[in-house]
Write a structure and sequence with these properties.
Layout: E1 8-16, E2 23-30, H1 47-53, E3 63-64, E4 68-69, E5 76-82, H2 84-87, H3 97-115, E6 126-127, H4 141-157, H5 166-175, H6 179-186, H7 233-238, E7 259-261, E8 282-289, E9 292-298, E10 311-313, E11 317-320, E12 323-326, E13 337-341, E14 346-352
Parallel strand pairs: 2-5
Antiparallel strand pairs: 1-2, 1-6, 3-5, 4-5, 7-12, 8-9, 9-14, 10-11, 11-12, 13-14
């Protein structure tokens, strides 16, 4: 029989069972006969690796004892045994204390479900502070550790019988999940399923069918897309859009332009014909925004500030240094304002509508 001195208590935690009424206590202990932590290639992990990296991606041998019924605070007591090298690191002085306690608790809950059939609620799991082993009413820690060592020894020799007392049988039958429940939870859908044979589609079902009607395909008979789709509808109504595709050969501008130049002998008029530019003023943009017309004009080289600008306004046009700009709507002459932007050398004229 194994010596009880080799069994080392680690920590204990409490958790409720799946019925949310039964309170269980789990004792995590250590014994050298369980087996050390292994890598994926089944090689033994050295202690230096456990100190630096913990239990992630390792194979942890574990043994789960029979659940015992208690009579005071807790209803069930379960012992879980791992190798002593893992339990020895479940102390607060170890920098990976939280890591080891969390990993071993999760591992214990999974194996209790597989070995004892008792599902513990992880949300109600709580570490019992200041306790390494929870003693029952009728068993002290030495008796419990002796039974754990005996169970491990019998399991190693393959002599573990299936004899259980009546209290354990009643306890397991009450809280153990049935095989049907466990299989339904762990059942996975097959990766490959057989496609059922169907007679919905038969060979030659399109022999008497036609893809197109008498008029043929209508795939390309849709109206052409709007070339001005990228311009918002509200902006189209405020601007004068010229379709250059419809212009005749030799003509590049519409017949009417908002800019007309006047000579020194003639007076500027709004309805007059276009004249040859003599003062080099050019209209960059003319937009109607809200209740006013905003005009951006590029001045000639000799204009350096607003002092060099001679601005006159009439209800139908404005005159800037003998340059006449026709307006699409009548404006309020008293509200006309101008601003010269020296940074961009642009004259901005705002004309409120009547």
């Amino acid at each position: 029989m194994l010596s009880t001195t080799k069994i080392e208590p680690g920590f204990c935690f409490e958790s409720k069972a799946f019925d949310e009424k039964t309170l269980c206590v789990v004792n995590v202990c250590g014994h050298d006969s369980v087996g050390r932590a292994l890598a994926k290639n089944m090689e033994v992990i050295p202690d230096s690796y456990l100190d630096d990296y913990g239990l992630d991606n390792l194979i942890i041998p574990i043994s789960v004892g029979q659940p015992r019924k208690l009579s005071k605070k807790y209803d069930i007591s379960i012992d879980v045994v791992v190798h002593s090298s893992l339990v020895q690191r479940c102390v607060k002085s170890n920098r990976l204390f939280d890591h080891y306690v969390t990993r071993l608790t999760t591992l214990a809950i999974d194996w209790i479900l597989q070995e004892a059939g008792i599902r513990l609620n992880t949300r109600t799991c709580r570490l019992i502070p200041g306790k390494k082993y929870f003693e029952s009413d009728t068993y002290n820690i030495s008796q419990k550790l002796s039974e754990i060592a005996k169970t491990i020894e019998m399991g190693m020799k393959g002599e573990l019988n299936e004899q259980k007392d009546s209290s354990v049988e009643a306890l397991e039958s009450k809280f153990r999940c049935t095989n049907q429940q466990i299989s339904s939870e762990t059942k996975r859908s097959p990766l490959i399923t057989e496609v059922p044979a169907s007679t919905g589609i038969k060979k030659g079902f399109l022999n008497d069918a036609r893809l197109y009607g008498a008029d043929g395909s209508s795939e390309c008979s849709k109206p052409p897309p709007d070339p001005l789709m990228h311009i918002p509808e509200g902006l189209r109504k405020k601007c004068q859009i010229v379709d250059t595709r419809k212009l005749e050969n030799g003509s590049s501008l519409p017949l009417k332009s908002p800019l007309s130049m006047s000579t020194s002998n003639d007076q500027p008029t709004c309805a007059g014909s276009l004249a040859k530019p003599i003062s080099e003023w050019s209209v960059e943009s003319l937009n109607q925004v809200g209740g006013e017309i905003v005009i951006h004009l590029k001045p000639p080289n000799f204009v350096k500030s607003i002092k060099d600008v001679d601005l006159e306004a009439s209800p139908e046009c404005i005159d800037i240094n003998k340059t006449t700009v026709s307006l699409p709507c009548r404006i309020d002459v008293n509200g006309v304002s101008a601003k010269f932007l020296k940074s961009s050398m642009v004259l901005v004229v705002r004309c409120p509508l009547l």
